[in-house]
Amino acid sequence: MPRDASACAAWISTRRWSYTSRQRGGRSSAGRASRSQCEGQEFDPPRLHQYTQLVFVYLGDRDSLMEGLFSLLPIIFAAISVGLLIVVVRKLSNPSDDKTGILIREEFRATRKESAEASRELREEVAGAQKSASEAVVSSIGEMAKNNEARLDKLRETLDGQMRSLQESNEKKLDQMRQTVDEKLQNTLEKRLGESFKIVSDRLEAVHRGLGDMQNLAGGVGDLKRMLTNVKARGTWGEFQLGDILEQILTPSQYAKNVQPNSRSGETVEYAVRLPGARGDEDSTVWLPIDSKFPQEDYQRLIDAEEIADSDAVEKSRRDLIRAIEKFAKDINSKYIDPPQTTDFAIMFLPTEGLYSEVLRYPGLGEKLQNEYRVTVAGPTTLSALLNSLRMGFRTLAIEKRSSEVWNILAAVKTEFGKFEEILTKVKKQLDTASNTIDQTSVRTRSMERKLREVEELPAKDSIKLLGLDKASLVEADDETEE
């Protein structure tokens, strides 16, 4: 059975001239064979379109062939008519030949009748051929459609079965994958949740501890606030901070607490640094007064005004603060400065750096306090630097004071070193005498050993017992024997 379109194409080409074969009384063997092969062929679905195109090409060629034949018929009839007319004219030119003219006319009528009959038969043959070809094409197309539909149904069933099996396999694999993913996800979630819960619990515990610390801190801040609202408590806090700085930098002998430097006023300053006097002895002392001040109300009002950005309130609060600082400086000058018992200046200690920086921010205030009241303002950092410089000065003075003592000690060491040299000479002589004595003893010992070589030796234990040596020598002799 052929699987290509060549046999069908050959059959279609032979069908174009089938009417000639039928007029001849039969069909060609090639045409019948091609038709049988083409009619018996089972068309594959992919080739349906190709076969359909070939059928339509065949039909179009037959139509064009029939149209050509019909267009040639008038020409043929015209040629025959012209020939007959020529014969008739020639016969008519000879009027005596009437019988010939009659025969020509009869022949012309017979020819025209045969031509008409041939044309009718040709039309009927062409119509029959077209009808049979159309029926064959329709039948072939129907059979191909049925075959294609059956094949499509079979293919559809096969595809449906494969799709169902593929779907079932995919569902099984998806179930396995889902189960694996669920297990891994469950394990991961449990692990992550456990870690997260642990972290959260640790954080909550830390927050709980922090809240406890914050509560303690809040309580301490509240206590500090209550303390700072009391004037006496604020003064005590400033004194405590000042004493802590002095204790960290200076020795207890270099400063004193609750000193009365001015005998005229009889006032007692919180702390005073002990400086050496002009005579340089310990009884001559010059005091450097240091007093702690903390105008907390004025400073707090200034901070509150700056937070609300009230320029008028800020300016008023700053003027009140400067006025309070000037009043403190005036009190320190009148109460604690009394040269030569004290230095010609004193130090006002401000316990916070914010307050100290606010005082320095006011232009000309520091110079005014130094020039008019002989008072120097210092914060915690500035006071520490000042006390460190004083400590270096104290060290220099101590070195100068101890230099004469060090010189006397060096002179005594020099004298004793001369005596030490004499003693070393005596010791050397004694060591030389002992060395000579040991050498003489060694010579005698070797002489005695030479004399005793001929004497038989006793065992160690017997010799120790005979000579009456101590038990330690006996034990040592036993150890040597065992070895």
Automatic annotation (TrEMBL):
<feature type="region of interest" description="Disordered">
    <location>
        <begin position="22"/>
        <end position="42"/>
    </location>
</feature>
<keyword id="KW-0175">Coiled coil</keyword>
<dbReference type="InterPro" id="IPR003798">
    <property type="entry name" value="DNA_recombination_RmuC"/>
</dbReference>
<keyword id="KW-0812">Transmembrane</keyword>
<keyword id="KW-0472">Membrane</keyword>
<feature type="compositionally biased region" description="Low complexity">
    <location>
        <begin position="22"/>
        <end position="37"/>
    </location>
</feature>
<feature type="transmembrane region" description="Helical">
    <location>
        <begin position="69"/>
        <end position="89"/>
    </location>
</feature>
<feature type="coiled-coil region">
    <location>
        <begin position="105"/>
        <end position="183"/>
    </location>
</feature>
<protein>
    <recommendedName>
        <fullName>DNA recombination protein RmuC</fullName>
    </recommendedName>
</protein>
<dbReference type="GO" id="GO:0006310">
    <property type="term" value="P:DNA recombination"/>
</dbReference>
<dbReference type="Pfam" id="PF02646">
    <property type="entry name" value="RmuC"/>
</dbReference>
<keyword id="KW-1133">Transmembrane helix</keyword>
<keyword id="KW-0233">DNA recombination</keyword>
